[in-house]
Amino acid sequence: KKRVYTFGNGKAEGKADMKNLLGGKGANLAEMNLIGVPVPPGFTITTEVCTEYNELGQEKVVELLKAEVEAAISNIEKLTDTKFGDSNNPLLVSVRSGARASMPGMMDTILNLGLNDDAVKGIAAKSGNEWFAWDSYRRFVQMYGDVVLGMKPESKEAIDPFELIMDEAKEAKGVELDTELTVDDLKELVVKFKKAVKDQTGRDFPTSAWEQLWGAVMAVFDSWTNPRANYYRRLNNIPDEWGTAVNVQSMVFGNMGNTSATGVAFTRDAATGEDVFNGEYLINAQGEDVVAGTRTPQEITLEGSRRWAKLQSVSEEDRKAKFPSLEETMPELYKELNVVQQKLEDHYKDMQDMEFTIQSGKLWILQTRNGKRTGAAMVKIAMDLLRDKKIDDKTALLRLEANKLDELLHPVFDSVAIRSANVLAKGLPASPGAATGQIVFFADEAAKFEQSILVRIETSPEDLEGMNIARGILTARGGMTSHAAVVARGMGKCCVSGAGALKIDYKARTLTIDGKVYEEGAWISLNGTSGEVYEGKVLTRKPDMSGDFGLIMDLSAKFTKMNVRTNADSPKDAQVARDFGAQGIGLCRTEHMFFEGARIKAMREMILASTTDGRKRALAKLLPYQREDFEGIFEAMAGYGVTVRLLDPPLHEFVPHQLATQKELAQEMGVSVDVVKAKVDSLEEFNPMLGHRGCRLGNTYPEITEMQARAIIEAALNLKAKGVDARPEIMVPLIGTLKEYKMQADIIRATAEKVFEERGDKIDYLVGTMIEIPRAALTADLIAAEADFFSFGTNDLTQMTFGYSRDDAGTFLPIYMDKGILKHDPFQVLDQEGVGQLVQMGTQKGRSVKPDLKVGICGEHGGEPSSVEFCHGVGMDYVSCSPYRVPIARLAAAQAAV
Ligand code: ADP
Ligand code: MG
Ligand code: MG
After folding, report:
1. Which of 216, 255, 444, 541 could form a disulfide with 95 if both were Cys (CB 3.0 to 4.6 A apart)?
2. What own/partner pairs with CB < 8 Å and gap ≥ 24 does 192-201 have?
3. Mean per-residue pLDDT for 155-165?
4. What is 701-722 written as a DSSP string?
5. CA-wise closest residue to 861 among 841, 876, 843
6. What are 525's strand-pairing partners?
7. Does the pTM of the predicted model rise above 0.80?
8. Cβ proximity of 499 and 296 under 8 Å
């Protein structure tokens, strides 16, 4: 088995479509070599070896790899005319992780590997640049100490031991930047760093290049299972089994002085999707310096640089003097980079996110990948590429991540409110959107308030979880490619970064801006589109949905095989969904209608009545309300089917539980409070979700079904009289046996006939049932003989198939997911393996007796992309989901059909 793939000098053993084996980074490094982009030579150890490592351990894996790695190193030596482990002319390499799916900042990288006290002198002599040699060495000792020797502190609040030494050194010298330290300072740093290693680990820093290399390779494998990588995988549904590849690559140096630099660049704007080349760089810097936020990164293009200066209120003179663009400082290299970025985008036909380094006037590309982007940018870029005929319809559709459309559907600031908002500070528009919330200063306290804004000097990968919880993120430091900015854009979370006016005191938990102090809990608002920070709460409003968004919906309509309906209980929700393109209602719950105003009284009267007559009297009061509700909903969905579910929850939910309300009710009904109390108590159940609910209500109290059926049919007839096309579909919930259904269906049909006779008019209507109890799925063929349609109620079906109570599962589901017992919350993502079988079987059995049986789904899963895909596979006619998920479901349905 081949475990190592080499690349360099225009040749490569791998290529772009080998991501599974080589990881994204390795596959693209190989590909770039093949298309003539300058990439330092190196090799990739496959992801399979990571799995072998986890199974067999270090010793065995080194044995398996040794010969191939040695050959690959000697290949680099030949190409670079250096020698690994040599003192005079040493080969230095980076050791980089690289999974199939990109996990920015999640894994650890080691640069300048191969240095020791002798090699550093060789490098210094060869380059004629002692400062550079020692800067590289101190960086290497720190990275190796942190990552391989495990010296990076676990706790977020603890300071990295090397940072501490560094800060002390800078303070002692009275300088602010790393670049201001002298060669002697750097030499002293290395001594102190190595002492720290010895003190903390009890071992000397390894001097052998080979020992360093194997240690680093194993550390990359280990980093696959570190907590932040684990969390990131869970957040992004990346399987643990995939493993990471390891890339070993000859170093190029951006820290060789003023003709060297390092940076990151995007072929298009990752926030807006605009087709403008952009990015950031730093002169005389290495590796992560640009994203680390230790120095203010500079813009690559002149235009970008000017825009940045305006946002930061930096004068043109200052900008030119202190923060000039690459276009100005290295115009020739800028041109070269511009050519490469265009070449890469044309080749990959998607927006690229690149890392580059300039070593003494020579450009090298170190990474390219499809860039992370906001939902808005995702949409714009795909549609722009489609318009430019770079990709076709299907490719454009598949480029979109359905869940990300969500970001486009969320509020923006009200344009009037925003004009009068008090601007506290300005930062960079790192990730667009509007957020308003209460200040928290620590990521692990993000849940302290219902709506929180995480305010940090800068963020780090440890903060991921809190960033996900917070409504928005505000940082004092860092540029457009800082950790906070990149992660926020990936999450679609509003973020303003690098707001320099912020003074944050973590200890006192205060934020000070221009002398004014804001405590934890104070309200602020962020505008991720302009970079402005406002005082207090600022009103938000609905975004407008047109242009490219409409185009995507049209494209979806072209390919989809399923309809998308909505779950809605009110005309307003129905209208919202219809505007998003919903074609009908898949679930209209009727119980919510019983809670408002006078209705709840009549409802309680009905429940507490001790005779059928008493119940009928109360139901007669409810009838006009129900009819009115249905008229509104049918009208909002005119021309489309509306599935109305009969009363479903246990009656106990409707009765008063407080003595005062019980007394009131008793008085109104002219009975003693004890009678009311006794009735309330008698309705109490141990397992209400498995108790007297669903069709069990209608089968014990047929008059309820009668009333509801009458209200539905009368409403439809009233609308017909007004010329409105109402299409009711009456749905019986929670059946387990044919008889349970049949008895309800008979009542519904008989009632409808009666109403038709009374009115001397008719309408078409359907009667069907939910399949949400396993027994119903198992006997679906019997039920289908009597039903016009099935709707899979996957919430209850999941609950009953797993035997997890939806209301109590919160106590153990998170633990189950942590421990990997479950991959997803089955109430959010349909369990295709188990529950899915029942859905599939139910559909097949149903259609075996009634081939044109209409089948849909109405659980939460109807708006979740992977579940929608499953429903398509099962051959459903429609999925139904909450109004704001409709566009997502439409796109997911189309993607499934492409
Ligand atoms: P990540 O996946 O976190 O981006 P990378 O492996 O890309 O980690 O490396 C982190 C940084 O180190 C990047 O900025 C990259 O440009 C730099 N780097 C990696 N390898 C080299 C190399 N061979 N020469 C110079 N810089 C490198
Ligand atoms: Mg990288
Ligand atoms: Mg149900």
Report:
1. 216
2. 192/165, 193/138, 193/141, 193/142, 193/145, 193/162, 193/165, 194/141, 196/145, 196/151, 196/161, 196/162, 196/165, 197/141, 197/145, 197/149, 197/151, 200/149, 200/151, 200/161, 201/149, 201/150, 201/151
3. 83
4. -HHHHHHHHHHHHHHHHHHHHT
5. 876
6. 436, 534
7. yes
8. no
CA distance 335 to 358: 13
pLDDT interval class at 712 (50, 70, 90): very high
Catalytic residue (one of 858, 871, 872, 881): 858
Choose the residue to mutate in 39, 96, 253 for probing ligand 1, maximizing ligand atoms within 8 Å of C-beta: 96
82 SS3 class: coil
Cα(3) to ligand 2 centroid in Å equals 22
Ligand 1 mean position, distance from CA 96 (Å): 7
Catalytic residue flag (residue 858): yes
Domains and CATH numbers, the chain: 1-115+209-251 (3.30.1490.20), 117-207 (1.20.80.30), 261-373 (3.30.470.20), 411-541 (3.50.30.10), 560-597+630-649+706-897 (3.20.20.60)
In 224-330, which ranges are continuous DSSP H helix?
Answer: 227-235, 289-292, 302-311, 316-322, 326-329
The single-letter DSSP state of residue 400 is: S
- Contact of 63 with 188, CB cutoff 8 Å: no
Q: Is 795 annotated as a binding residue?
A: yes
How far is Cα 226 from Cα 203, in angstroms, rounded to an integer? 23
CA distance 863 to 880: 7
Burial of 67 from C-beta contacts in 10 A (0-12 / 13-18 / 19+): exposed
Cβ atoms of residues 21 and 40 within 8 Å: no
871 is catalytic: no
Question: Distances in Å between the alpha carbon of 362 and those of 76, 333, 696, 833?
Answer: 18, 8, 78, 54
| 73 pLDDT more than 90 | yes
Ligand 1 close to Cβ of residue 75 (< 6 A): no
Contact 797, 859 (CB under 8 A): yes
Measured in residues, the chain has a length of 898
Whole-number Å distance, alpha carbon 366 to ligand 1 midpoint, is: 7
Lowest mean pLDDT among 225-239, 349-363, 854-868: 225-239
